[in-house]
Serpin B3
Amino acid sequence: MDSLSGPISHFAVDLYQQIRQSSTGENIFYSPLSIMSAFGMLYLGSRGNTAAQLQKALHFNKVAENPTGGATADPVENPENHHFQKLLTELTNPDAYELNVANRLYGRKEFPLPSGIHG
């Protein structure tokens, strides 16, 4: 979980700054973890420039960029994917509390999911 604490914290502050600009004088309530996990799912299916932009926004700096500007490795195999799975598993402690994070993406049949992503 420690490996995602930095990216989640940075993303949360960035997102708060953006929301704060349009919410003058109002209370703000949001879940950075839920939003980041939804964007993480988008990142898994992204390639090229889109993957590079999501990687930057989510502060996934461990993956170096390639010369063409996109993320190098297949996002499904990136460590962030495995860290998210582990984090969401660790956040559930049936003896003390129950935390459910529910995000879902719907794809079109014309666009098959990359290998490693279950539909």
The chain has a mean pLDDT of 76. The CA atoms of residues 1 and 21 lie 30 Å apart.
